[in-house]
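Why should sequence recovery work at all? Because a backbone constrains its sequence more than one might expect. Tight turns favour small or flexible residues, buried strands favour hydrophobic ones, and helices have their own preferences. The token representation captures these environments compactly. In the example below, the structure is given first.
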């Protein structure tokens, strides 16, 4: 038996990376999974910035399945840079997909979950929504917004049976990360970033999906408003080489 047997889950960003891993894991846990993305082999092709399309997709889920138990909200894009070099259009693109898109998906999830009196929403934020990073600007702002939006929604709907949490991944080996780290001249950056994770590696999408499955399930029935850090120790503190001097 799976932790999500007989449930219906929607996964955004379901065509690749963390979203695809979440869709696979939730299905393995017994859920009927409906996937959403802007491209790829998914159930609903749409842009999460388009409220009418988001609303229609969730109406379709309810019409087809009669319920909505969980949402894993993984649609997102990378982008940013020092603000004096950042175009307004790029700022809008990143913030609109990552933050406005999360808002719209959560909004139309909540409408149906309110009617049934229960549900679990899991937003994918980032450790870059908890602390600053070089050149983060738009991405950090958008993911910090996701963390605060998650907490606010959890406050608003906890007494109505809806739990809302977010996951803050570290560096995860996805097409999104590789598009940055595999580009020309980024070898040193990639190795420095990897080394900042205390486990000495990037995470796997399946490891974020495992956390999402937990938060979506009744095993997390007393958890809401939480930003769960899954980062291989990235935010735990600094390694400065002391243990190497001690022969460790």
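From this structural description, the recovered sequence reads:
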């Amino acid at each position: 038996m799976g932790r999500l047997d007989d449930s219906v889950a929607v996964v955004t960003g379901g065509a690749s990376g963390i979203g695809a891993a979440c869709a696979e894991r939730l299905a393995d846990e017994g859920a009927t999974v409906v996937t959403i993305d802007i491209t790829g082999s998914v159930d609903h092709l749409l842009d999460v910035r388009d409220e009418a399309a988001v609303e229609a997709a969730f109406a379709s889920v309810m019409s087809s399945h009669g319920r909505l138990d969980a949402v894993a909200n993984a649609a997102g894009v990378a982008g940013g840079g020092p603000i004096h070099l950042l175009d307004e259009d790029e700022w809008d693109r990143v913030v609109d997909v990552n933050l406005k898109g999360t808002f719209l998906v959560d909004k139309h999830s909540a409408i149906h979950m309110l009617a049934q009196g229960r549900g679990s929403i899991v937003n994918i934020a980032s450790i870059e929504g908890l602390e600053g990073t070089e050149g983060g600007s738009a991405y950090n702002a958008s993911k910090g917004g996701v963390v605060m939006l998650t907490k606010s929604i959890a406050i608003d709907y906890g007494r109505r049976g809806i739990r809302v949490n977010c996951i803050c991944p570290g560096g995860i080996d996805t097409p999104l990360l590789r598009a940055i780290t595999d580009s020309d001249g980024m070898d040193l950056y990639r190795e420095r970033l990897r080394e900042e994770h205390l486990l000495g590696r990037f995470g796997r999408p399946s490891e974020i999906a495992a956390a999402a499955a937990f938060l979506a399930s009744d095993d997390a029935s007393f958890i809401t408003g939480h930003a769960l850090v899954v980062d291989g120790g990235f935010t735990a503190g600094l390694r400065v080489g002391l243990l190497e001097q001690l022969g460790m």
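A few observations help interpret the result. The chain has one domain: 8-174+204-232.
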